[in-house]
Amino acid sequence: MSTTVWLALALVLVIEGIGPMFLPRIWRRMILSMAQLPDRLLRRFGGGLAVAGVVIYCMLRSRGDL
Prior knowledge:
Strand content: under 5%
Helix content: over 70%
């Protein structure tokens, strides 16, 4: 994998770790409430996040920032 992909993965891990590290109670409540959502809604949310990530990556790539 390219360095860019590894850097992106590292950034995701840092951002994902901030919630449980600083706000564990709120993070736990959020996870519990998400667990009760219907699968269809979770799939749409996940798909939207994935599409947004690809769009941002493509925009940065086309500008030459990556």
